Each structure stands twice: as C-alpha cells, then as structure tokens.
C-alpha cells in the first residue's frame, strides 16, 4: 500500500504546477532553498531599515522641536533640510527634502515671450544665451522637460522687459506635485576632512 502524499512532498514550478519532490533534482531543491533564504533575509533587513528611517527621522524632528522650544518658537510644517552634527564634528545626520516640480499652462506663455526675445536678439551677439535657452526647453526621451534647466533661466541677468515677464511666468507656473524625504548619515576622520556617506544601499557596499 503506497503512502498518502502530502503537500510537503510537492514543489510548485514556475508554471504553477505541483511537482513531486522526488522528481526534482537535489541541486534544484538546494537552489530554491538558498534563494528563499536570501530573499527572506533581505525582506527582514528592508523592514528593519524602514523602521530605522522612521525612528531616526522622528528623533531628529523631536530634537528640532525641543531646540525651538528653548527659544519659545513653534516651527510650522516640515519643509526644508535639517543637519545635526556631533560635538566632535565627525558625525552628521541629514534630512533632505526634494520637491518634485512641474509647470502648468503658463509655461507656454513664458516660452512665447522667450521666443520673442530670441527673435529680437537674432541680429545680436547673444548666441550663447540663445543656446542655453533653447536647450532648457528640450524634452527627454519620455517627452518631459528638464525642470532644473528651466528654473536655471531665472539666474540669467538679462535686462529685457519680455524676458523679465517670461521669468515671472515661469515662477507662477511652477507647481509642487510631490516631495520625497531622504535620511543621510555621514562620518569623517576629523573636523577638517570631507564627509563620507555611511552607505545604506547594498549596491554601494
């Protein structure tokens, strides 16, 4: 009389089929166990890192609030970057907030005004500036504009009424569509050395 087979006697393959373990080569079973062991450990590490980030950011915010209370100041919101440095100047914890920007329809008005400026400068000697402007409005492979280049146009010192209107339109068209908060940790051998990130990315280890 044959034994009754149990679920533990089978393994599911990539197609979702149950295959008796007796039909699976030992090396395949060992590979399966190794991959599962590493992935499980990675998931546990990921969970620990998520908990560490939340705890560290909470502790930094609590310290910032405590520091503000000593001066009877209430800090509103969480916008902005924060850096805490150890007393010996060797360790630093930094919270950085990167905002994701986009532009609304007013950017088209800015581009039209800028085009008028370029037309007016056609006979002038501002070829370098024209190149910078045209590059700023180039799109990438996904058809997206480079927000950094467009915002950078506002730093150009150009005294032209249309240009100034265009820069105002750019400022008005900017919209914050989201943000991401980063926790970074640094160390250095002495207060005079450069900061070296404490790598929390497996690829950087």
Automatic annotation (TrEMBL):
InterPro entries: Phage_B3_Orf6. It holds the Pfam family DUF3164. This is Sulfate transporter. It comes from Desulfosarcina widdelii.
């Amino acid at each position: 009389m044959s034994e009754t087979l149990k679920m533990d006697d089978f393994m599911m393959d990539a197609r979702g089929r149950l295959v008796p373990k007796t039909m699976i080569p030992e090396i395949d079973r060992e590979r399966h166990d190794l991959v599962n062991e590493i992935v499980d450990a990675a998931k546990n590490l990921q969970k620990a890192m998520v908990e560490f980030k939340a705890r560290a950011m909470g502790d930094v915010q609590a310290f910032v609030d405590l520091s503000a209370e000593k001066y009877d100041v209430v800090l509103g919101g969480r916008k902005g970057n924060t850096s805490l440095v150890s007393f010996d100047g060797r360790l630093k914890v930094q919270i950085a907030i990167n905002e994701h920007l986009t532009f609304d329809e007013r950017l088209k008005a800015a581009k039209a005004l800028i085009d008028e400026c370029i037309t007016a400068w056609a006979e002038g000697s501002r070829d370098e500036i024209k190149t910078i402007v045209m590059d700023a409005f180039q799109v990438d492979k996904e058809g997206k504009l480079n927000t950094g280049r467009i915002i950078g146009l506002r730093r150009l010192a150009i005294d032209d009424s249309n240009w100034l209107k265009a820069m105002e339109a750019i400022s008005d068209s900017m919209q914050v569509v989201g943000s991401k908060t980063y926790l970074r940790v640094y160390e250095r051998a002495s207060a005079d050395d450069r900061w070296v990130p404490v790598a929390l990315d497996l690829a950087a280890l």
